[in-house]
Amino acid sequence: MKKIFCIVLTFFILNQSFAQYKILVQGSYPNLYLQHKVAHGETMYSISKLYNFSSAQLATQNGMTENDILSTDKILKINLGKNNFTQDGQSGENETLIPLYHIVKPGETLFRICQNFGKIRIDFIRGWNDLVNDIIKPEQKIIIGHLRVDLKKASIVTERIINTDAQETATAIDQTEPPKKDETETTTSTTPKQEEEEPVVEPVTNGNDDEGFFVTSYSVNSDNSVSTTGEAATFKSTSGWTNRKYYVLCNDIPTGTIVRITANNNRSICAKVLGALPEMKENKNLIIRISNAGAAVLKITEKRFNVKITYNK
């Protein structure tokens, strides 16, 4: 089942062994691509599985056959398409999304970038880049979409992708889940390892009563206060785990509104509305989706749960 993903990205959650780089998209829409630097022992088949291709597709993209032997450090072209690239806020089960950037050129506006890269929803691109307005400047790096990869293979992918503009290995991971113990391990070992249960990672807070970064922007006005209750679910986001910024998707509440979400256990957070719920069957009967860091603060573990939403008109 697909889950809605709409992230606001301000920080990368990085393993200490990785340097911080931003992965730049190559080419022009719709012919976007990345570049993969072949490591020792990699094959056309193993690389194709990293990017949700068949080995035949990967070979065709690079003018080769799927049985060709790959030399170490060879550069392969990785096309971005429906199997591995998303601009509509969706990710699959057990997937993580790695942000992909475009460097703003002189004269470009946020609206023009949205149009040039496949008519991206402007509220999505604002959210991904944590923009409070549409003002951007030349040389600024703007997220224009995300690479969809298997969560367990994300560290391998980001170690192999290169940025031709910087001539450096791009190793920044935009993880949509808290960091896990073994994500920095490579696949060089031939001994299978038994999978361990992932540790529970708590978001950083200022105490049990901390409602998050947006609590200071939440206006308490009983005359204009509106409350509603209903069923909620979560979406994956990097935001909130360290910066305490929680976000929601919901219908009938204007984008940018600060809302207070209260769970049945009486825990609450304040969050900003990113936009409406996309029209998908997974959202049937839902009134809201909450970023996973916000749900963690609320001590929510169920896939669906009831909440009370309060905001001011």
Task: Summarize the main sheet.
Answer: 6 strands, mixed, barrel
What order do the strands of the largest sheet run in, or round the barrel if closed? 11-15-12-14-13-16
- End-to-end separation: 34 Å
Element order: H for helix, E for strand: EEEHHEEEEHHEHEEEEEEEHE
| Total number of domains | 2
Q: Specify the structural class.
A: alpha+beta
Q: What best-fitting shape do the alpha-carbon axes yield?
A: elongated
Helical stretch count? 6
* Average pLDDT reading: 79
Number of strands: 16
Compute the CA-based radius of gyration: 21 Å
Low-confidence stretches: 1-20, 164-199
Approximate strand percentage? 25-35%
Structural commentary:
The chain has 313 residues and is an alpha+beta fold. It folds into 2 domains: 3-169, no CATH class; 213-312, RlpA-like domain (Barwin-like endoglucanases), CATH 2.40.40. It is built from 6 helices and 16 strands. It has a 6-stranded mixed beta barrel. Strands 2, 3, 4, 9 and 10 form a 5-stranded antiparallel beta sheet that branches. Strands 5-8-7 form a 3-stranded antiparallel beta sheet. A hairpin with a 4-residue loop joins strand 9 (161-163) and strand 10 (168-169). Helix 1 (44-50) crosses helix 2 (55-61). The radius of gyration is 21 Å and the shape is elongated. The two termini are 34 Å apart. The model is unreliable at 1-20 and 164-199 (pLDDT under 50).
